[in-house]
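To illustrate the input format used throughout this study, we show a single complete record. The first block contains the structure-token representation of the backbone; no residue identities are included at this stage. The design step must infer an amino acid for every position from geometry alone.
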């Protein structure tokens, strides 16, 4: 499409939902404010001083020669009307497992997400980061990017020094029992005991403890190998447990990048030297800081304390320069409380001479539980991600058992089957409910909404995949034999509406990836589910009136099943074969 208008304009895809009953597949207005927001649209922007209407006419002529669609102009708009060939090609393309994967962009992206401090179990309030981050990574891969998922490990700050001191100081016999039989729940007891001691201990012993903690921090700054080893003995074990928790979502990483790496290799020291020599640096009361007023940042950025130790953001500067050396783009998923850090970081990177157009930060609000909600947290220490997932699976299991008589398929489920489906539905409900919301707004997680089989939830969408799988199982047909199915026979309005939903999936992927908004895909899955359910109500498939119609509808079901499976895959939600 772009090749057709490179002489006069560039185009930009926009993929809004169209209403039922409209024959057009897409339209290309020159502005988003169109009276036809229901079509997949293309914004046409003149690269020369060209009236958009003049760009539309040659564009429509060029496209119409392809023969795959009927094209007409309406002022600055180019409206694409579907042909039988278009629908046939859509069904064939969507039967492939790779449907929705875009061409390779030959662009590498490092995606940093989660990066929770390794001080104990993952808290439910931070659950949005790994869920959004994991979905964003898969979305970018579908969009043709080469993505590496990184977890940045804060193993050099005061919290970790305190943790290391506490682990080496307290005796396990003096600690309460761990909340779970996993390493991070075991070790967090030392961290809590250490903090309690620092708050409540007598002045003399607390001063001694503070001196030991400061010695650990100075040892890290000095590159002391023995201190690095002491810290790693704690951090690596806690990370092992946190990984086990995150893997339940699942959210997995290609690399865990430690903060101390950039102290050990000298890159943090190099950053400090360059910042100190910059025109924006000044020394106040022995500490070095940057004046970032030119970037709209009123608060000075301290990058070196008066005692000669660096700060988290200082080390993160070295980390980001390493990213720029290794990847084309860097994307970071951060909590709303990290906005100042992100702003200071970007400004300081520019002071260091980096191209920050390659850096993008996307922010999210917290996940809260309804007032009075309880999930039996055992020790009253707050709700962890594991608590949330356990509760989700238990509630899903109860709902599935209650609905056993309403199941789509009449196959017998074993206890293992019920447990597997409960995990798929329960964890899927958590992921979907969180990823489907605008990320910058704080959300309250509500069980009734998340596990509602009849509403816009993960089970509602997962049910579509299970229903499609059930239809195909009942038909007892090999999907590979449906290549010759005639999509031209799919003339019922609900068939055409479902075809249009299938057809717009690749454009949804592209738009969501460019805007870094996985929730756009979640919205699409709900609209897709509505279209499929309408088709299911109105059109017989297995016992269709004739063989030709039956095969065409079965091919449509295969295409729908592949599409919804891939859309759910982007969101990290399982696509059950049976529910």
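Output of the design step:
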């Amino acid at each position: 499409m772009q090749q057709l208008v490179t002489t006069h304009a560039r185009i930009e895809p926009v993929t809004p939902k169209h209403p039922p009953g409209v024959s057009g597949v897409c339209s290309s207005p020159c502005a988003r404010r169109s009276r036809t927001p229901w079509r997949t649209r293309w914004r046409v922007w003149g690269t020369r001083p060209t009236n958009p209407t003049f760009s539309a006419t040659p564009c429509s002529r060029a496209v119409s020669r392809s023969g795959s669609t009927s094209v007409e102009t309406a002022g600055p708009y180019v409206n694409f009307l579907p042909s039988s060939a278009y629908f046939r090609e859509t069904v064939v393309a969507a039967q492939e497992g790779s449907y929705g994967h875009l061409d390779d962009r030959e662009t590498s992206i490092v995606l940093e997400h989660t990066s929770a401090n390794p001080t104990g179990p993952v808290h439910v309030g931070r659950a949005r980061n790994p869920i959004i981050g994991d979905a964003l990574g898969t979305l970018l891969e579908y969009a043709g990017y080469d993505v590496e998922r990184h977890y940045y490990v804060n193993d050099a700050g005061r919290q970790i020094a305190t943790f290391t001191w506490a682990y080496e100081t307290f005796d396990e016999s003096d600690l309460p029992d761990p909340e779970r039989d996993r390493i991070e729940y075991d070790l967090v007891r030392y961290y809590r005991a250490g903090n309690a001691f620092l708050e409540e201990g007598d002045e003399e012993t607390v001063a001694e403890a503070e001196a030991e903690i400061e010695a650990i921090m100075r040892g890290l700054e000095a590159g002391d190998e023995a201190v690095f080893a002491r810290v790693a003995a704690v951090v690596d074990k806690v990370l092992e447990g946190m990984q086990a928790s995150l893997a339940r979502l699942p959210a997995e990483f290609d690399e865990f990048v430690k903060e101390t790496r950039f102290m050990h290799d000298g890159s943090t020291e190099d950053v400090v030297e360059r910042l100190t020599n910059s025109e924006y640096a000044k020394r106040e009361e022995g500490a070095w800081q940057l004046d970032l007023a030119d970037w709209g940042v009123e608060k000075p950025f301290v990058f070196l304390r008066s005692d000669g130790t660096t700060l988290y953001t200082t080390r993160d500067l070295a980390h980001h320069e390493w990213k720029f050396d290794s990847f084309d783009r860097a994307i970071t998923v951060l909590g709303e409380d990290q906005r100042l850090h992100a702003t200071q970081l970007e400004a300081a990177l520019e002071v260091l001479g980096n191209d920050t157009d390659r850096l993008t930060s996307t922010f999210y609000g917290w996940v809260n539980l309804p007032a009075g909600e309880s999930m039996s947290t055992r020790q009253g220490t707050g709700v962890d991600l594991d608590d949330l997932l356990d509760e989700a699976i238990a509630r899903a299991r109860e709902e599935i058992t209650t609905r056993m008589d309403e199941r789509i398929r009449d196959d017998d489920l074993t206890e293992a089957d019920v447990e597997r489906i409960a995990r798929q539905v329960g964890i899927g409900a958590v992921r979907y409910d969180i990823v489907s919301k605008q990320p910058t707004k704080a959300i309250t997680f509500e069980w009734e909404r998340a596990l509602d089989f009849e509403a816009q939830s993960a089970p509602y969408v997962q049910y579509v995949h299970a229903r499609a799988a059930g239809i195909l199982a009942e038909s007892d047909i090999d999907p590979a034999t449906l290549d010759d199915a005639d999509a031209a026979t799919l003339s019922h309005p609900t068939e055409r509406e479902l075809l249009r939903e299938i057809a717009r999936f690749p454009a949804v992927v592209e738009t969501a990836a460019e805007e870094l908004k996985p929730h756009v895909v979640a919205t699409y899955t709900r609209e897709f589910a509505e279209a499929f359910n309408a088709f299911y109500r109105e059109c017989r498939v297995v016992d269709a009136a004739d063989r030709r119609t039956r095969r065409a509808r079965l091919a449509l079901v295969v295409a729908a099943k592949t599409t919804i499976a891939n859309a759910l895959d982007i969101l990290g939600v399982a696509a059950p074969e049976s529910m």
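Structural context for interpreting the output: Residues 195 and 482 are 65 Å apart (CA to CA). Residues 2-10, 19-23, 26-49, 374-380 have pLDDT under 50 and may be disordered.
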